[in-house]
Design goal:
about 425 residues, mainly alpha
Length: about 425
């Protein structure tokens, strides 16, 4: 006599399997509900509640003005409120959002950027050959939506989520030799904000010229389409660009921004920028010389280094730009990753953590910790990458294996080649 298991019994039985689960399976089951609810909380609670900082309102007002044939570039840059800074090509792309009323448009914008972040994380998993069923999937989702960069992107309601998706698509398509499509992906982001423009150095040094056809062509075409539709397109050049070229001393974690805020000597600021620029240059040279054929490692590591250098060394670097470093952070799964050490993740804590370090009893000390942690996080990451690569180079040179690359010997099948010291040689001679 056979008994058929009811659906309820089957469902309940899933809670206690007949065979033991692996640690990875247990972690996967544990992390998924936490990750999903954390993401939902960021989207429908924190983001919908909003904040005094509202990046979306000036964007919506500009889109509405554009659709109604009114002037767009009229911001008063004497205030510290968020300003509308997109070029005419960006205005054209975001204009449809103003078809809705402000509240619904903001909710839609939050949703689009949240979906873009999730899509970018999925593509990153694919890029590193990780499955959605692996423990990495909920871990990455939870980690991303716990960061300041994703949380404040949604709360302040800006476009960083879409920029991240454009970055990951660019890298993936570049690695798959889809040059025109890679250029289109980054070109769409540049049409709105030039945040990812430093990544164009990657196809430049790889001589992938077709990338530039669409990377430059897309924003140019969108600009040409926007010019006759905009009332004041050239005001972007005369009114907005001068402001963009200035260095502001608020909400600016770059070296020069902090230099202005704390009143540091100009020579010290210049010296710090030169030192970090030199470390970046040496690191990029080592990556190009010894890792350009290890394409995934090269693209995500050099790309991340270029972006963090632009945040730290240019005139403006804001904490939530750090979302663009997710591909570099994900490279930790690669055996030769530069992120496999604790100082790298100490740095990541500095520019990713949602923790506040403002100390009520010691306000000056707390403000210093809070304002500088992003800067030292970006700085430490550059130092870590430089130190790892230079150490690999010096070790390989000392062991006489530069011709085979600079990966540590424990990552290769080759035995370590070491030169015996005089004492060791003498000891060996004495035994015969």
């Amino acid at each position: 006599m056979s008994f058929r298991e009811s659906p309820v019994s089957s469902a309940l039985g899933a809670l206690e399997p007949r065979t033991g689960r692996t640690t990875a399976q247990v972690l996967t089951y544990a992390l998924w509900p936490i990750a999903i609810l954390t993401a939902v909380n960021r989207v429908i609670v924190k983001a919908v509640n909003g904040n005094i900082t509202d990046d979306f309102r000036p964007v919506y007002d500009a889109a509405l003005a554009f659709l109604n044939r009114r002037e767009v570039y009229v911001a008063n840059f004497d205030s510290v409120d968020p300003h509308y800074l997109y070029p005419p090509s960006g205005t054209l792309l975001i204009a449809p959002i103003a078809v809705l009323d402000p509240e619904k448009a903001r909710w839609l914008y939050i949703g689009i950027n949240a979906v873009a972040v999730v899509a970018a994380l999925y593509l990153l998993l694919r890029l590193f050959d990780l499955s959605v069923t692996s423990v990495a999937a909920p871990a990455v989702l939870l980690a991303a939506f716990s960061t300041e960069t994703v949380t404040n992107t949604l709360i302040f309601t800006n476009i960083n989520g879409l920029l991240l998706l454009g970055e990951v698509l660019f890298m993936m398509l570049l690695l798959r030799k889809r040059q025109y499509w890679a250029g289109a992906a980054i070109g769409l982001t540049i049409a709105v904000k030039p945040t990812l423009a430093p990544l164009l150095l990657l196809p430049l040094v790889r001589k992938e010229w077709r990338v530039f056809v669409t990377a430059i062509g897309v924003p140019v075409v969108l600009t040409l389409l926007a010019l006759p539709l905009s009332v004041d397109p050239f005001a972007f050049v005369s009114h907005t660009v001068p402001y963009l070229l200035e260095t502001r001393d608020y909400f600016n974690s770059s070296i020069v921004g902090n230099g202005l805020y704390y009143g540091l000597p100009a020579g010290l600021v210049v010296g710090l920028r030169v030192v970090f620029a030199a470390m970046v240059a040496v690191s990029l040279w080592l990556l190009w010389k010894y890792y350009r054929h290890d394409e995934l490692f090269f693209v995500v590591t050099a790309g991340g280094l270029l972006l963090v250098a632009s945040f730290l060394l240019a005139s403006l670097g804001q904490m939530y730009y750090s979302m663009m470093l997710f591909p570099l952070l994900m490279s930790v799964v690669l055996r030769n990753s530069v992120m496999r050490n604790w100082p790298a993740w100490l740095a990541a804590y500095g520019f990713l953590s949602y923790d506040s370090w403002l100390v009520g009893r010691f306000p000056e000390f707390g403000r210093t910790l809070e304002y500088l942690r992003v800067t030292w996080g970006w700085s430490l990451l550059i130092v870590v990458i430089f130190a790892v690569l230079v150490n690999r180079y010096l070790t390989a040179k000392r062991e006489g294996r530069l011709a085979d690359g600079i990966d540590p010997d424990f990552l290769t099948s080759r035995p370590s080649v070491r030169t015996a010291s005089p004492a060791t040689t003498a000891d060996v001679a004495d035994t015969h």
